[in-house]
Amino acid sequence: SGARAKLEEALPLYRQIEARLGEANVLQAMGDLLMRVADLSGARAKLEEALPLYRQIEARLGEANVLRVMGDLALLEGDTAQAETNHALALKLYREIEDRMGEGEATAGLGRVALARGDMAGADSLLKQATEILQSIEARYEAAEQIGEFGWFLLRRGEKDTAKSYLLRAADAFDVVSATDQARRHRQAAEEI
Fold it and tell me: Vertex 101, ends 100 and 107: CA angle to 5°?
């Protein structure tokens, strides 16, 4: 893809000028991109390269972001223990640096771990916490995204009735923020179940 080519072009330039933050950011972006195209081993390699760079330069937000994404990656790989560890570490860092957006997203990540383990009560509680955190900073779109993520996760697991409920809740939440395309997408997916 064009984005991947640009990132691959930028990486050696950052390395050449020893710009560790730029290098770490590019590696993280490459990891995110590879995860989105289901190259999980490639994503892991890039994220594992970025993490020590962020730690070396004490870029705690970057470190927290990579840990959160690595939590999502571990969950995709079926490793709930590692997913929980990564999301919990990210959550701790987000709280220390007072990043409420990250805190909400990491809390939702822990909720997806609970979903993967079949703990619906725990998952619902964590999702409620996550959406409250996000809504407290006026991040209503992001709160709707987290509700939708629960729905898509459950749908992939074949838990259609519960998935439908979350997808409809997400559609309603997207309606509130006038994200009509997202609302329509979630509502259509729920109706097709």
Answer: 85
